[in-house]
Amino acid sequence: MPPDQSSRNFDVSRLREQHRLMWRIRALEQAALRGLAEKVVLGAIHPSIGQEAVAAGVVGNLRRDDILLSTHRGHGHTLAKGADSEAMLRELLGRVGGTCGGKGGSMHIADFQVGMLGANGVVGANIVIAAGAAHAIKLRREDRVVCCIFGDGAINRGPFLEGLNWAAVFGLPVLFVCEDNGFAATTRTASMTAGAGPATRARAFGIVAEEVDGNDILAVDAAVQGLLAQVRGGGGPRFLHASTYRLTGHTGADAAPYRPAEEVAARRLEEPIGRAAELLRGAGVDAAALAADQAAAEAEIAAAYEAAFAAPYPEAAEAFRDVQDVGSPLQGAF
Amino acid sequence: MARMTYLAAARAALAEEMRRDPLVWAVGEDLGRGGVFGQYAGLVEEFGPERISDAPISEAAILGASVGAALMGTRPVVEMRFSDFALCAVDELVNQAAKARFMFGGQGRVPLVVREPIGMWRSSAAQHSQSLEAWYAHIPGLVVACPATPADNKGLLKSAIRCDDPVVYMEHKNLWPLEGEVPEGEHLVPFGVARRVRAGGDVTIVSWSQQVHVCAEAAEALAGEGIGVDLIDLRTLWPWDRVMVLESAARTGRLLVCHEAVAVAGFGAEIAATVAEHTSAKVRRLGAPRAPVGYAPPVEDAVRVGAAAVAATARSMMGR
Ligand SMILES: Cc1ncc(C[n+]2csc(CCOP(=O)(O)OP(=O)(O)O)c2C)c(N)n1
User: Fold this and answer.
1) Which domains are seen in chain A, by residue range?
2) Interface predicted TM-score (ipTM)
């Protein structure tokens, strides 16, 4: 059980905003899963249900002109960065008006207008890209920062080592966030990961790293505020290890039979939206107001889903647009 | 015109582009000391260590960071040292650089140039000698350039740096000291426009990179025997100049494609197939046997496609 919350000080209206955002994320992913069941969402969906405090607590602290790089499990991050829920659902349904025009889908969701430079279908690949985005910011003497979120499985890939070393050597403005949900697909990450974990690895590069309960939105929020201030102050990269738990399977198609139901049930009691609601109730927010947050989120997403569903697929000619300028298939250069 | 080497021509191209556009920067191992072949000599003195940037031995990060930096509007020139080492960054090139624009629905561009020196070079053996241009010609989203002359190494590199697509830029290590006339200043060679090295009416020979010079030697010998070679230096593999190649092959009725890379699944097969589909020309191709490159000279030479082999193949196509 989570620790006693009654003695904590916090900004009620800020937490209320985060509560709303977490509900919007959850509602969007529940809609995506329904779409998957109805075979309307076509490709793989990697839900972050149960992990919303990382999206809300980390990404909620970024400015619009800050840059975000995410993973295959990136719906929450993208929505938190300010992407439009209808454009996101259009993308998940592969429709015109999707953030990527229906050409990327869930695993490549991106919205450059809000600084969301892409989810990535290759585990760990975003880490070096994020370092490079921060490198460009430094070269251009801009004051924005980059945030790169990846899973616990990604720390066993080479780009983790190469990207962290790069960011440290060049003193780049990037916040790395390891969103640790305990699993890499069907494998318990701990069973395949040597050493004391992600933060210890980061510290080996001289990068200041913190560890936080990723289901505790207040703790995530506070840690990220502190780390981001250091990054913005020119201190170079910082690292956050946020521990959470994936309540669904790896994908929408994964029933996750590899873990006991009791484990999931126990972890469900610690899921972040309920914990935020408890804090808010303790601060005097009434149950009706909290229910209204959920209802508003669900209404927004239901309307967005309906509009996305009504939108057409892109025309087939989109297959040949935005491949390249030189030697483009549009020039008949097949 | 100035007389300069293939290496110096590329260095001049980079310096000119960096003077023209402050968003151009170069990154790779050892660049601050001029790079492993000296292609960057003197540049850090002019442009400073941020724009001529050293890098850790992290090929995935060098290329991956350049993808991020390119998406953010800068124009990185990425040095991979040897095309063999660029294999440590294939995800970053093939899954990231080549696809970002398309999969994000045109929201971003990846205007980077990745320099990947190729080819056999003084007993460099199996891991420092490969010609892997066909790998990248296969990937939608990429441009592939293989300059053969100093002038082209200037004009193509300048075009590559100005291109909004990711360009795989393959210089041949053996050509670094080759001297030639190079136009000064604004000299841009467009992609997809081949160069006719010599005109002839009997056999079309298509090649690129260092192999062009081998074919030129063969063509000279063949001329002495009364066989006229129409020798085409393709310059870029994607896009490639189908117009010039098809016109020539249709006219001569004989096409020989010749490259240093392994013949099996090499880019010569693509050209041969295209010519076979569109003309009635007789088609042959010549490339290396499907074996790694060895160290000892006789072993290395055994996989080299020499001028004698090129001439012999052309003669046999002529029925001689
Ligand atoms: C390089 C690479 N290897 C394997 C995969 C297949 N894959 C997709 S997600 C995943 C698990 C990733 O685990 P983690 O990084 O912890 O992120 P999570 O899925 O838990 O959010 C795997 C193995 C992949 N996409 N990319």
Assistant:
1) 18-307 (3.40.50.970)
2) 0.97
